[in-house]
Model the fold of this input.
Amino acid sequence: MDTNRKLKIAYKLSSMLKCELTDLTRLSSEQMEYIHRYIKDHVFLRACPGSGKTEVIGLKASYEISKWQEQNIGGLAVLTFTNSAAKELNNRIRKYSELTIGTHPHFIGTFDSWLHNFLLHPFCHYLTAYKGKDGDKSIRIIEQDSGADFMYAYQFKVDHKGKKVPVKATEYHFKDNWKTVVGDTDIAKSIISRGLTTTEFEEFKTVKTKFIKDGFATYSDAEFLCCRLLTKFKFLTQKIALRFPVIIVDECQDLSEDQLTIIDILQQKGTIFHFVGDINQAIYEFRDVNPELLMAYIQKKKFLELKLTKNYRSNQSIVDLTSLMIGNSDIVQANIGNLIPAPCILWQYDDQSFSDLPTKFEELILKHSLTLNQCVILARGKSTLDPLRVQNQNNKYTKIELFAIALHCWNKQQRNTDELTNALLYAGKFFFSIAYGGHPDVKNQYCPDGIDPVEWRLLLKRLLDEANVLYPFKANGVDMTWKNWVVLVKQFLMNKWFLLKYSSVTYDKIKNGIKSPDNKGDKYVHEIHSFTNLKNPFRTTTIHSVKGETLEAVLLISHKNKQSKGGHHSHWFREGNFTEEHIRFAYVACSRPKHLLVIATPMLSATELTQLKKIGLVP
Amino acid sequence: MFIKTLKIKGYRTFNSEFTVKLNKGLNVLVGENATGKSTIIDAIRLILLEDEFGRTGIVDTDFHRPLSKAAKSKGEPKINIRCEFDKLSDEEQVIYLPWLDLNNPEKAILNLAIENKEDSRGKFKRKIWGNESESGFFEWELLNRINCIYLPALRDAEDKLKAFKGSRLSRLLKNLRTNDDEIHPLEKKFAALNKDLLNDESIKIANKFIKDNILKSVGPLFGQDTSLQFTEINFDRIVERIRLLFYPLLPESGTVNKVEMFRELNENSLGFNNILYLATILAEFDGTETAETSHKILLIEEPEAHLHPQLQSRLMQYLQEMAIESKIQIIVTTHSPALASSCDLNAVKILSLVNGSANPIFTAVADCCLTTTTKNFLERWLDITKSTLLFAKGVLFVEGISEALVISEIAKMVLKEFAAKQPDKVYFKNLTDYGISIINLNGLYFNHFMAIFRGYKKDEDQSFVICPGIPVKCAGLTDNDPETTAKPTGQNTLPGKNHQLYLIAELIQQSVNCRLYSNLKTFEYDLALEGNNIVLMAQVQLGLIDTDGPVKTQLQAYSQKDWSNSNINDKADAAYFLLNHIDKGEFAQALSQRLSEPETSFAVPQYIKDALAWLVD
Done:
């Protein structure tokens, strides 16, 4: 695009948007091309990491919104996949356009919230014939890992490897009009992959049907149901397509097969789709996301392909390294200089030095004057990180452990928001599980049905406050064992049971359920937080949760074991084969930092070391 | 689209779910006091968030409390209002998508629930949602598209038409403004005026005085500059200063009334101010003809306020036309027979209180299965006096003026007699106390008039089908009408030629509310045949005759005889004679006068007693 034309467009945009001309002239030709492009074609905008994608979508959406005709009855939808990304898009679009409080008739949010609000909640009961509760026919979304008691009603047993294995309706979902069943947990996947008998298949279907008819659905079910809904109610599809004549999908590589089906149905009714994203960052295989399907779809529907090839985030060394990882032969241009001479560093650790990694990383960060809270420790899976984490996210605590952790978090000196949230969450889960039945409101600290969430939180606060005798797990200055602590807890519960309003259970009914964690009766209660002594000032998380972020530095830790599924460095750097998801994980992790990338591996062999050096890592 | 059904539960009068059926265009809600007409209007205002009301309009007493409970007891736990729209256009289906009923895409549903639980700020928790599921977000913009305007019953039109922030006039003018960005010509003119003002000598001097005094009082450090201006230079402020004036006469064609002739509204009559106010509101609807507000609802309580009957009828016709032309759904409550008689009968909805029913009964005349002939007939025949039948608790239909005049007096006697016979039952003194209207049909039109009440219809194959009817007891009195010369008696009945007589049996068979009663010959004949009535009736007629002659002689003879034990055929001859020598209207007038005198004794024919018993028992 020549400078003159660019200036002309920039001038036009600055008159329509709340954006300074100087900011607009800074846009690249590629960015400008897409923003200004007439919207009536299907477009796939291939955006490399750090290409300013969010900014471009923000401007594009703002531009379209300001052109949007009043009499046009529908609106533009801008969809993405995480709440944080949706919030960011919302901020950008608001920054540039005239949207005030609401976005009506436009929609900016996650694919799920769009689907749920415009299809699932209003209409799903027409499909499932769900009778509703107190006149409310909304579908309840149940998390895949829901351990709620009521789920036992939707559980059945399957013979698997010589054992009777329980399977819950949340552990699998259907697709292709009930023709195919897909596992969502390891156990369900394993059962399904060995092939189901007709009887078993029918059983899967019956239980799922019951689950759905009773007004429940998992996220995957929701997508499946919406597909069915659109197929069955043609007129609805037509109206949705008119309601949203243009839909921009950000992070399109995260589209699942069912979501793609929904898109296809709407596309056939005339909705125009703009896909924006990077196939190399598709890391949701576990959710049925297959980038090859997306590419095939893009080709089949003849989407116009545009590219954003400039990286505005990372320095050239990091850009080059990431390009090598995915075998990208195009030269990606970095737009910032190297702040640190050799910004791609390789560390090796052994069992002793592993827990020193955060300290070592901190020293390096301070040396280069980077901002600590902009630096992150990453790994593929939680198991690699758990030993380094202050906050253990593990959900598999026994009831009594939940209570112990809640108390620990609650009584922390200078308790931060995370600790407060966790204290209430764990306490909520504990008290719900011992004293209430029915369906908890997971989003509100397991608030039981019929109790106001605020009232529930206040109750939890009171219980945690009154439980001060149970903390810090000591008796006469001596650490207590679980066995002894349980006695105190029981006493506490008996005395305070009257506080649990609306509970239909008596203390006597549940007292036998309050016991030490298995085989831990003689262990000390305080061990549950022993890891908190670990010094780690960094946000320590999985690759999934930093998707789309820009960071100053990243420490990516390889699992010590090659058997780890995609968590070992040998899965990340493979010459010749670039289609595996493991590589894309590493790619996402390595393309986050601006200035510094450290990869920590277990001790390397000479060959391995040479190989890693070759791609640009400096030991 | 339009509101087709409104379901109200737990709100004021309405305990269990109460269904209101509305139609496109004009709807007229009639019914006695305290049947819930205003509650229906308020329910619509609540759910559609009509300003001034929708957001706050709930107090604790709005939650239904049965009459059996103490006044201060806590009401129902919840108020539910459900509004069903119908006939959504293709475009509206897209707009109101989340509210659509998938089984019928032309239908959309909106729900409101208010919990009887005050928060610390004294507000009641409310939830509003489309369709059947409460989850998901609610697009308020959809609700804002529905433009609902409410005119209260005792409106102070003069006050509303004054110039103030948010006045109707300023809203109208702001709505009419198409382009917000450009400077409005009004603003330019005011700005120019301001400049001029500053050049005026007196303004200049005044400003100087002020400036000097500021300087003197606070000194140069704290001093401020001042300028005298006409302040209203922004469009919104300017239009808020505009008010309506009037002149009672229209200009002659081709001329205009002079500006200085217009008067302040406080010089105008209440009724005309009301009309002016209404016109302003309707103009506002015209002005808001944009995509933003696609549905328009106008709620008017008692538009008859301060208007004389002809103006009421004219207004009703105007509203009816507006409803069609501007596609406004208008819902009117009224106690005015003039209004009720001048609108399309299908627009009329009746609320009736029925003993033993928790809620009032809602009947749309449109649902009463009237044949086109009957409907047309009724619309032509319903004048102001006849349309009182829509407001009555009971109706007695009579054929002519004689019955209409005499029956109310006779009824008093009959009610007294009932009370004497059944001392354990309470009987009122007259029909007015019962809320029963006597409606003179001026002819034999029972089949048409009773069609709204009878609760069944006759199919083409002559079979009967149950259908809605106004749940009010109604009776008719009709003459048997045998041959003119016939002198039937109790022992010698004769077949009548009255073509409505078939209804007597049909109503007994089919109708819960309606009965028709007939006699031997005609009203006066049958009265005369009863007991010693001839004496009194002859006396009454004698009072009306000034000329001597055989008629007078004969009547005198009748009036002096004791008929108690006379031969029935002699009585029949006398009754026949009487019948042929009276002017019915004049006679009825005099007879009712006589009957109203205390201690008058008069025997009442059984068919009249039966009819009255049907109405009051």
In short: Residues 417-435 of chain A form the longest helix (19 residues). Residues 125 and 137 of chain A are 6 Å apart (CA to CA).
